[in-house]
Prior knowledge:
The protein contains 9 helices and no strands. It is mainly alpha-helical and 163 residues long. It has one domain (20-154). Helix 1 runs parallel beside helix 7 (99-121), helix 4 packs antiparallel against helix 7 (99-121) and helix 5 packs antiparallel against helix 7 (99-121). It is elongated. The two termini are 27 Å apart. The model has no long low-confidence stretch (mean pLDDT 90).
Amino acid sequence: xxxxxxxxxxxxxxxxxxxxxxxxxxxxxxxxxxxxxxxxxxxxxxxxxxxxxxxxxxxxxxxxxxxxxxxxxxxxxxxxxxxxxxxxxxxxxxxxxxxxxxxxxxxxxxxxxxxxxxxxxxxxxxxxxxxxxxxxxxxxxxxxxxxxxxxxxxxxxxxxxxx
Length: 163
């Protein structure tokens, strides 16, 4: 039964530690959760006008800061993914099987932050909240429907013996 879960993957689908390469769905969810940080990096690297990109995406400054706040959990997931290797710290090994739950919590937290921004400061529109809810539901469904992501969560890189 254990070998059947790999039957649809070729040798290119595995990394140097014989683990299945991470599902692209991890990165897709992270892109959405970390969008505030991505916009921030884009605006910092724009030498002509550092604020224009940020103001175009986030016309209200508080929206930008709320996006950074809601992306904080995504930064933890990004750190866990980047430290996922043999001889990783114990906390990474412990948290790795729960990475999907952390991603879903990050999505829900992001939505809650935007709800607070809407109801408390009226920063977003109902259309954006509805769109975000649909996007988040789709991303959560992608997280739980991915067989590759499930396999990724069961594996953790181990040091391979030298040949």
